[in-house]
Amino acid sequence: MSGPTDSYPTIILSGTDPDLPDDFSNDFSKYKDFQDMARGGSALLRSCWDSIMGRTVALKTLLPKASTNPRERRRFLREARVTSQLAHPATVPVYEIGRTDDGHLYFTMKCIAGENLFKILQRLSWGDKAAEREYPLHVLIDMMLQAAQALAYAHVHGVVHRDVKPENIWVGKFGEVILLDWGVAKVWGQSDKDAIPTEDLDHKLATSKDKQLQTLTLDGQRPGTPLYMSPEAVLGNRNIDERTDIFSFGVLMYELLTFSEPFRGPTIRHTFDNIINFSPPSMLKKAPARNIPDALDRIVLKAIEKEPNDRYESMLDMIDDLSATRLELLSAPR
Question: Any catalytic annotation for residue 163?
Answer without folding.
Answer: yes
